[in-house]
Design a protein that fits this description.
Elements (H helix, E strand, L loop, with lengths): L7 H11 L1 E4 L5 H16 L15 E2 L21 H8 L4 E7 L1 E2 L13 H4 L5 H8 L8 E7 L11 E2 L22 E2 L7 E5 L4 E2 L11 E7 L9 H4 L10 H6 L17 H7 L9 H6 L1
Bound molecules: 2-oxoglutaric acid (AKG).
2-oxoglutaric acid binds next to loops.
Cofactor: Fe(2+)
GO molecular function, one term: iron ion binding
Protein name: Phytanoyl-CoA dioxygenase
Length: 291
Amino acid sequence: MGEPVTDQDAIVQHIHEHGYYILEDAVEPALCDALLEEIERLEAKEVPRSLDNDFHGHQTTRFYDVLNLGDVWQKLPVHDAILPVARGLLGDDCLLNTYGTSIINPGETRQRMHVDDGPFIGARNSCLRHRAHVENGARAHIVLNTMIALCDFTEENGATRFLPDSNLMPYPSVKGDDNWYELSQPAVMPRGSVLFFEGQCFHAGGDNNSDGRRYAVSVDYCAGYLRSQENFLFSISRDRLPTFSDDLLGLLGLRISRGGLGHVYHHDPDDLMQRIAMPTSSSGPEREAQE
Ligand SMILES: O=C(O)CCC(=O)C(=O)O
């Protein structure tokens, strides 16, 4: 990877050019510990995991809807080592796209190589696909994903595999993608590091041949003019919103985008929220999880 890049603009530039960047010492040990404790709490409560299938893995623990599950989850999407990079690449009005754990348990097999902007570009006639090909031969940046290491990532325990410079490859045929696995490299990095990878960068969860779990959280952002993969505006309990920071509310879509999208009577939705009493939900999985 050459000389480490520490300046935030240089990180964005590296992602733009090569599709990825690994930032060490990004997330403080106390926050890693708090997130591990929270995962342990959710597992003890038997909060249901999501997505047990061939693509997402049968031995991978995935908790989604985490902002409803505990306060500590509010910290990562707005973390000052992470959010400025997302904003630098996608724009200040970027949104949270998906957010959850990716804990690869011993015995998990490797995932199929894929890109994360697929849901937005998949439609053959999508305007985004068209736009992609008119911007100097490189597609616009619409997604930035991160893998935040809550333990050391090693090749043996299933470090994320990624293919440097694959952001510049022609948009793939879905079936052919996996050939690139052999060319990929493991994101070997110490606990507290963040792997940033752009939506066009090929990557996959690795296979875990160790006897320990590979703990990670993925915070995935998209451009502010897109519909996010997770429907946060519907799923987040109204009574949790007042506990969120301004930055987090913006990431959830409670701010008007640069192009004027998402307004309520031409106001930011959260301006309106402060003026009217929002209905509160009285049930949901977080209730049980928090008790
Ligand atoms: O857990 C990982 O290392 C990557 C997971 C991933 O890319 C996915 O599930 O889409």
